[in-house]
UniProtKB/TrEMBL annotation:
<dbReference type="Pfam" id="PF05013">
    <property type="entry name" value="FGase"/>
</dbReference>
<protein>
    <submittedName>
        <fullName>N-formylglutamate amidohydrolase</fullName>
    </submittedName>
</protein>
<dbReference type="InterPro" id="IPR007709">
    <property type="entry name" value="N-FG_amidohydro"/>
</dbReference>
<dbReference type="InterPro" id="IPR011227">
    <property type="entry name" value="UCP029730"/>
</dbReference>
Length: 258
């Protein structure tokens, strides 16, 4: 874990493999479904506490597999995105959503300015500070790792692997050039979400603003349900990631060390 001075910060963020030297920094904004005791249960129905609305199932396990293969540090949130979504800026309503798909979050209704500030200061800012600290160590590439539900508002999604980007498409372009290595997978650009959905906040804040090549990986969560699934998916992703790192100007060292 990151060594912070304040207990609240320690509980909000975890840094895994902080000395990784592979040239890639992994971030996992939706790694946990944990709701700190001070927020009660947010009024959630029990079955929603572990649902995809509360976190990204499999995303942290996949991040750890990629970390091991690439010798990459991971910055992971330890708080449910229903408390604060670390991939959203404080001013966004979706940072502390009152509803996520069909999931209602009564504990987020009518939050005061002071309540929103407390969550921002105790969850979002420590996460951002940890990312900033790891960027100072000199990675060339930022990768944000997510998972998504196979069925959304009752509709089955065909996308299996989404390669997302904002204005900087360097890593996404290079990865997609190698998507042919996985003919059995439905791999799509900026699906099932894109910049218009507000999902590239972290890429812009931590990647583009710091001159880092960056990409978001969105994996359908029924493909990473257990350890075997995660191992398979990590190897499939690496078949796109490693050639991309090799081809990315200035990032070849990280790719060679992976």
């Amino acid at each position: 874990m990151l060594n912070n001075q304040h207990g609240a910060e320690e509980s909000a963020v975890e840094v895994i493999n902080p000395t990784g030297r592979g040239g890639v920094l992994l971030i996992c904004e939706h790694a946990s479904s944990e709701i700190p005791a001070r927020y009660g249960d947010l009024g959630l129905r029990p079955e929603w506490r572990q649902s995809h609305a509360a976190w990204d199932p499999g995303a942290l396990a996949l991040s750890k597999a990629l970390s091991a293969a690439l010798d990459a540090p991971i910055v992971a949130s330890r708080v449910s995105r229903l408390v604060y979504d670390c991939n959203r800026p404080p001013e966004a309503e979706s940072a502390m959503p009152v509803r996520s798909e069909v999931v209602e979050v009564p504990g987020n209704v009518g939050l005061t300015e002071a309540q929103r500030k407390e969550r921002t200061d105790s969850i979002y800012r420590p996460f951002c500070a940890a990312v900033t600290e790891m960027i100072a160590k000199g990675p060339r590439v930022l990768m944000s790792v997510h998972s998504f539900t196979p069925v959304y508002f009752g509709e089955r999604r065909k996308t299996e692997i989404g390669i997302l980007h904002d204005s900087d498409s360097r890593m996404a372009d290079l990865m997609l050039e190698n998507a042919g290595a996985l003919p059995h997978r439905c791999i799509e650009r900026n699906q099932p979400y894109g910049p218009e959905d507000g999902v590239t906040h972290s890429l812009k804040l931590h990647g583009i603003a710091n001159g880092l090549a960056n990409v978001m990986l969105e994996i359908r969560n029924d493909l990473i349900r257990d350890e075997g699934d995660v191992t398979t998916m990590s190897q499939e992703l690496l078949s796109m990631i490693r050639p991309a790192l090799e081809a990315l100007p200035g990032a070849g060292e990280g790719g060679r060390n992976a």
